[in-house]
């Protein structure tokens, strides 16, 4: 047997079609006593027939399919035997369609063209990604790591739309219909892939200059126990952010008190700017307020370190092009 004469197996691999397509008269399907259904037909056999019918030349059809003319001839003979009808008139000099072959081709060609177009669009979606990427993120992560790069991403990928939902809940992004999530830390569900986005985060103590108009500025960590500290939960009803400090090689934690409590860091920053208390926030998140003088860092010798944010998404053998584009772009934009 010549190379490629294995009933266009290489063509099957090209289209990923090793299963059988059963063609059956719908009018007779399921009827008791109806005429027997047509025999199963290999879809690659129909693809071979369509190519041969289009070229009316087995050699040119074989070249298109990447097989030999002998393989095409054998596949056509098998198809004719399965359908119990002659599809081509063949002589040593020419090939032409029979009436049955012409009828089959006219009905089948549009469907096969649709299959080819669908495959092409799937491949195109990988090379030129399109569609909507749905992102679930905390506000802090979005403002620090995503927002600064959105404009550049949209310019680079004009066919992709981005939908962003902001909250602090570590929920099931799949059941909620999201493509990926962004949260601090890398503890995610077992079927998720987590990728670090940016560096580990430094937490600092901040306050507005006005807060100390009639108060003494703290000089030690313990001095914070005598101040109105703005506390924060991880989420609604969740646990408190801990005021942990790295001090001379040791970790020091204190249980601060205060009259204001939030579940969102931007509210902590806003309240601190208004002089309503002392906040313990991510340095990167408060950099604008620090640069403008609305806030200033206190206890500069003491800070805390938090985990880095992580981007996570369901483990998939084949990642959609739109998701791959977003993940790769944001990881690269936030390289440390």
List keywords for this structure.
10 helices, single chain, Arc Repressor Mutant, subunit A, D-Maltodextrin-Binding Protein, domain 2, 4-stranded antiparallel β-sheet, alpha+beta, disordered N terminus, 336 residues, rod-shaped
Structural features, described:
The chain has 3 domains: 116 residues, Winged helix-like DNA-binding domain superfamily/Winged helix DNA-binding domain (Arc Repressor Mutant, subunit A); 94 residues, 3-Layer(aba) Sandwich (D-Maltodextrin-Binding Protein, domain 2), CATH 3.40.190.10; 106 residues, 3-Layer(aba) Sandwich (D-Maltodextrin-Binding Protein, domain 2), CATH 3.40.190.290. The chain is 34% helix and 21% strand. The protein has 10 helices and 17 strands. The strands form 6 sheets. It has a 5-stranded mixed β-sheet, covered by helices on one side. Helix 2 crosses helix 3, helix 2 packs across helix 4 and helix 3 crosses helix 4.
Task: Indicate the topology.
Layout: H1 9-15, E1 20-21, E2 41-42, H2 43-55, H3 58-65, H4 69-83, E3 88-90, E4 95-97, H5 99-127, E5 131-137, H6 139-146, H7 150-156, E6 160-166, E7 180-184, E8 192-197, E9 201-207, E10 231-232, E11 243-247, E12 250-254, E13 261-262, H8 265-273, E14 279-282, H9 287-292, E15 296-298, E16 304-306, E17 309-314, H10 321-333
Parallel strand pairs: 5-6, 5-7, 10-13
Antiparallel strand pairs: 1-2, 3-4, 7-17, 8-17, 9-14, 9-15, 9-16, 11-12
Helix pairs in contact: 2-3, 2-4, 2-5, 3-4
């Amino acid at each position: 047997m010549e190379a490629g004469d294995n009933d266009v197996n290489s063509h099957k691999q090209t289209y990923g079609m090793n299963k059988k397509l059963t063609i059956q008269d719908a009018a007779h399907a399921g009827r008791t006593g109806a005429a027997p259904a047509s025999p199963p037909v290999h879809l690659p056999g129909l693809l071979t027939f369509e190519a041969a019918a289009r070229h009316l030349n087995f050699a040119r059809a074989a070249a298109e399919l990447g097989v030999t003319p002998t393989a095409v001839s054998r596949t056509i003979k098998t198809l004719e035997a399965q359908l119990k009808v002659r599809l081509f008139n063949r002589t040593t000099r020419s090939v032409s369609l029979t009436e049955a072959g012409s009828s089959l081709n006219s009905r089948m060609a549009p469907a096969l063209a649709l299959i080819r177009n669908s495959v092409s669009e799937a491949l195109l979606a990988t090379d030129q990604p399109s569609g909507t990427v749905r992102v679930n993120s905390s506000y802090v992560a979005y403002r620090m790591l995503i927002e600064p790069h959105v404009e550049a991403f949209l310019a680079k990928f004009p066919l992709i739309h981005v939908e962003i939902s902001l909250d602090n809940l570590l929920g099931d992004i799949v059941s909620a219909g999201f493509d990926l999530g962004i949260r601090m830390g890398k503890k995610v569900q077992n079927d998720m892939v987590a990728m670090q986005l940016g560096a580990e985060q430094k937490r600092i103590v901040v306050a507005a200059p006005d807060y100390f108009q009639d108060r003494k500025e703290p000089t030690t960590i313990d001095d914070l126990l005598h101040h109105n500290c703005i506390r924060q939960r991880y989420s609604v009803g969740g646990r408190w952010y801990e005021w942990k400090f790295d001090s001379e090689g040791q970790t020091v934690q204190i249980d601060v008190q205060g009259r204001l409590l939030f579940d969102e860091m931007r509210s902590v920053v806003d309240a601190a700017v208004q002089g309503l208390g002392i906040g313990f926030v991510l340095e990167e998140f408060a950099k604008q307020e620090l640069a403008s003088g609305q806030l200033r860092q206190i206890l500069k010798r003491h800070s805390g370190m938090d985990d880095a944010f992580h981007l996570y998404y369901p483990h998939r053998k084949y990642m959609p092009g739109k998701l791959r584009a977003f993940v790769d772009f944001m990881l690269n934009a936030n390289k440390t």
